[in-house]
Amino acid sequence: MAANVMEIYGTKVFNEHVMRERLPSATYKSLKATLERGQPLDIEVANVVASVMKRWAMEQGATHYTHWFQPLTGITSEKHDSFLSPVGDGTAIMEFSGKELVRGEPDASSFPSGGLRATCEARGYTAWDPTSYAFVKDDVLCIPTAFCSYTGEALDKKTPLLRSMSALSTQACRVLKLFGKDVDYVNTTLGAEQEFFLVKKEDYDAREDLVLTGRTLFGSSSAKGQELEEHYFGTLRPAVSAFMKELDEELWKLGIPLRTKHNEVAPCQHEFAPIFEPTNVAIDHNLLTMEMMKKIAPHHGLVCLLHEKPFEGVNGSGKHNNWSMSAPKMNLLDPGDTPMENLQFLTFLAAVIKGVDEYQDLLRTTTATAGNEHRLGANEAPPAIISVYVGDELAAVIDAIDTGSEYTGPVKMKMDLGVDVLPKFSKDSTDRNRTSPFAFTGNKFEFRMPGSSQNLADINTVLNTVVAKELKDFADELEKAEDFEPAVIALVKRVFHDHRRIIFNGDGYAHAWEEEAEKRGLLNLKSAPEALPYMASKKNIALMEEFGVLTKTELESRCEVSLEQYSKLLHIEAVTMLEIARKRIVPAINAFMTDTAAAITAKQAACPGISCRAETKLLQEMSLYSDGISDGLEALNAAVEEAEAQSSALAIAQAYHDKVKAAMEALRSASDKAEAICGDEYWPLPSYSSMLYYTM
Ligand code: ADP
Ligand code: MG
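That is the input. Now the predicted structure with magnesium ion docked in place:
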């Protein structure tokens, strides 16, 4: 197997190795310059690359190519064009030019743009992101691209991400220069831990709620939930194991460095973690991973659920965003061994802490989706309050710096940072707190709020830009200083002092934290409609415009798109519930009640005066729930109508949150109670216990 992995790894990717081998050396050199220093790609060079790429792709069986991009829906889009070019004598040749490689023009009229672009002038173009390798999938050469309008507005998730990476790089290089390090480029790195559920395909197919919305909208809890925690890191079911093997193989071919896989806490929940990569590549790879997971699961009789909350009563799924900054041979969030390295580390740490504190609202908006709303603040995922966990050791260092007192941790550190060094932070001592939304884990930060189905681009765009902003302010201040060392120590000290409130090492799930956070003045934006408007606040627009990442108009349109998506998803859920209840649950309950009533009549006819207490009680109870369902249906219908009648995207989203969600819960509650007392052969939907505890 080992040899096999090495043989298949990256075989479907037009990677560095293939380029070096196949491109003429001058072409290779100019492409490398583009890759490493972001220089524009010359059309002559593009022509050569395109022709070599086409030949390579055809050897992999490709007949078509596509500009693969990420519209605001978050999922990837592709439109396939064949290489075919008729030559006029009835024959054809296979063609692919540099122009076609670097630029495409999808008909973009139906992608959401939040009013940015009238549909009649849907002129957008896609541009190759050469830092993310092209690859062959399903006989199609896929070229990772960014998607912009002709007037330069970003219409996708990748464009702002690339802009934010470049902004961070510029500012981080300035700061590193002050520390005597000359580097051209600082990359942000990302390792995305992906959680998901696998259910039997036959169960999935029998539930319209799973098919249409990705989560169960009805379902009485299983007698056994996750309380025994036996599933965590348990043995994989054979079908699951076979799924993972096939997936490993397909992802390795695509050069996706998937490394860890294990069972998660909830029954039939699992997790994958790849080795980290530059952020834009890691995101492309995460999107491909999700796509392949969905595609491959049915080969094994399974369906992969990426929704944040497929089942009530057991944990939901997140996607931990492990993030750091790296220069060649240097992880900027690694404390290092020498006092100067420590000081550099503390400076970058201070930038992150200050940034997260000042832009907690903006960071929160990036995780505000309908699906994720079920997780945040519930007793399984981080709270909706953003805080930073640094671990006890680092907290003691920060406290000591802040108060100017002696640090008395495991390794002594003098406050002038002159001789002693920071203790080495072992992962074990820093990674115990699982309740923190933003945790320092030894040499990186782990943002745990993102939902499992999310595209991580928005999150990293914000993170990068926020840190770029702080680094810029630091560099502006420090470049002016006469004596660098005392100036940077003073700066670090001041930042730790001013932003102490965002650091919290305690239990994020505890109610006491909510009260404490409020006292500290931290935001607690519980719902998506409450959080999303912050996206386009004055302060956040100023930030994004300062670094040319997004404009005011773009931010406003993105806020609008997010609100609309929230409402649309809830609308689909509500309508699906109405349908399932009317067409399947009500008839089932009626059949059950008819049979129960008939049983009473039959018993009494056969044996006058016989006790029918049990049947009568059951019938009465079921009739009560049936009334509840009927009332619930009416109320939900009315709530949806009321929400749809609101006049702004925000008001609609608020109504969905306040009214529709509550009505959905009431309807579900009545139905779940009915399910609990209804005979199995009547109930039209596979039960929670059959879905969560399958054997195969
Ligand atoms: P855990 O969080 O479960 O303890 P790991 O230590 O394996 O697990 O890390 C989780 C993820 O963090 C992996 O995807 C890993 O590649 C990623 N990671 C590790 N170092 C960095 C880094 N410097 N930058 C970004 N991600 C990183
Ligand atoms: Mg983790």
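Residues 165-414+425-550 form a domain with the Creatine Kinase; Chain A, domain 2 fold (CATH 3.30.590.10).
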